[in-house]
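Hi W.,

Here's what went into the run:
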Amino acid sequence: MSEVLLVSKDDLEIPVSYEAAIISPVLKGMLSGPFLEEHPIKIELKDIEPQVLAKVVEYLEYCSTYRNVGENDDIPEFDVPTEMSLELLLVADYLNI
Amino acid sequence: MFKIQIRSPAGLGDKTGSTFDASWKILEDAIEMIFSGRSSELSFEVLFRTVYSVVLRKQGEQLYERIHDAIDRKLRSVKTSSLNVKSTSLLDDILHAWNVQRESLRVISDVTMYLDKVYCKESRKPFVYDMGIDLFHNIIMKSSKDQLYGLIMGQINNARQSIADVDFQQLKYLVEMMETVANTSDTYFLAEFEPFLLRETQAFYSRVAEEYEGELFTYPSTVETLLTKEQEIDAKFLGDSVRLKISKEIRGALISENIQFVGMQVLPSILDSNRFTELKLLFELCDNSNDRKKIWKHLSQCITKEGLNINEDLTLKKKSQVAVRWIAEVIKLNEKYEGFFNTLPTSEPNGLKYINEATSAFLNQNGKTSAEYLAIYIDSMLRLPSEEGDMTKDRLGKSVKVFRLLRQKDVFEKLYHQQLSKRLLQQRSSLESEKNFLAIMEEEAGAMFALKPDGMFRDLLLSQSNNQKFRQSYNVPFEFEMSVLTSTCWPFQQTSSEKEVALPPALEKLKLDYENYYLKAYSGRALKWAYHLGSIEIGFQFSKSYHIITMPVFAAIILMLFEDYDELNMQEIFDLTHIPEQELMRNLLTIAVAPKTRLLKKQPLSKRILPTDRFRLNYSFSAPTTKVKVLAILYKGDFDGQFNPRSSDSLQDLAKERIRCVEACIVRALKFATKMYHDPLYQKVRENLANRFEVSSTMFQKSLDKLLEREYVQRDPDECTLYHYLP
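Here's what came out:
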């Protein structure tokens, strides 16, 4: 269960680690609930543009890497491309991140 | 200037087509599937997206209502189909329904996460999960509440009585269920079930207490067993805080509610059988300070009763033996409870006070007798030969403790002084142990107490050195010791016999010599002779044996008359000696009637002495030892003699002294405050004299009246309860 595949609009599969995925309660619900998604470790999110989903995955990984780091350590800024911000906002809302 | 272009999002969710009803259809089916445990056939993503789109279309409220209704319907059908209120498996059924409900709700709420997040938060509705739980509570639990409670309680009570096997696992699940279900702000368990549980528990144990049939004194340990058992049972399915409450409730039911029973029946029974471990347990079981106070009160009543039950063993011949035994019992009693007190944890700071108060109470119910007995006890302790020093010391220390509890301390003081003086003059105790004891007493009762005894010791020392000097400068034909006593220090009444007693010539000369010597040494002092305190030793060859007889001075004077006369009657003796009639009577009785010391023969033989009775020497006197001690016998009239404060003489003395004390105290208090109202004044006087005796209001009033009469104190002309000090 270490890796989960997120499938975007163009059937592009983006891998994300389980630890990062469960930061989103929605993804967590999908992964842990007794639903269809449980067996193939593949989550279809066909409404989402691939580059946006890639950014989301990047963010999730970023979070899971740094969430347990103490305050004093250096945390690099997370870069959000401006033109993508609205789309990201929407996805974030959807995934409840 | 940059112009940042933000791509407009394409938007998520199914914007096209599908109406609310279509979406709802999907969800409704899904709910149905979830409840029947087939959720693995559903796609989370699809459902989630459906909810998402519905909410996006601002149809959240509708959706929420629909879900609510759907769950509601579902539960009602469960209730009618599978929950039979009268069924014995109701508990199981409820649990089953609960588990299904919980599981389903969890899934549903996962799916409707977006609804919760967007709609519920904004419109302040409970989340879907909580709503479901709430429905469960309203539909299932409310309707079967009575049966549910009844069954649970039945199980618990069965466990308490170890009647049947109890499914604790089930109970545990039920409790969990109730803890999950929320009712307003508290969990259902806290708000509804816990009070019920506590009430029932209380009722159960009240019944246990009512039906208690075991030995009274094992009640505390029975309670403890019940408590541990309950703890064991509760630990299997209840949380900590409830367990604490339950155990409190049980203690309440078994002890607080029954405090009367515990205090009036259990406690005496425990004490009767001396089961102090039970008593200790009882205190440990009482976690309520009020209860403990009540128990202490009962305990102190019991102690008092026990103390009053210590009988003066009147079968013993001598009063001193009675007294010694009685005080020993008192000390034992007090020690017993103090010992018990010391086993208690330190959280009982007042315990000792109660014990001592109880002891004090019965000591004082016995009034002056207690003080008297204590004095006698100490007297006989000090008279013991000093070899047993340590034990005596120990006992004396303990008797000081009794003294501390005594309220009529002045009675004791008076008696102690009297007895001390006797011991000193008759040299019946070692001066050292007397001084030691006095030091202890001084510490306990203050310097005033030791004032007179110190005077006595001083007199004796001085007299000894005077005796030596006297013997050096005068011709002393036989062993002779004088004690010159300062009259204020010694508690004897002055004997002012109108006519000087005629002494035998040898003694008379000695007396004059000593007076001569003393007045030379200390001019300006008057010597008075107190014959009745002295004693004389005479050696005499009786027909069978030689005896050295120690006897009171008066007896010796009488006896020595028979050097010159063969036979005398009482009147003649009186004429020759001028011994006061009372003393004469007494001494004649001593040496002519008392069976063991019959030095004179009396004609006719009878128990009384008449002026015409004739006396002559009893040459046939004999005794088992060479040394014989003649003890002055006491009059029938004041049989108990000067020992006894009940005899009217010393009683009056005492009363007078007390009034003097009260008067002095009033004047002191008023002088300090210039004016005072009646009640505070009374209070103050009481407090000040509390360590000597209790001031009764009549005594106080009497003293005050006297002071008013003698114009030491003036009543305020306007306020009759205000008193002024008159300088």
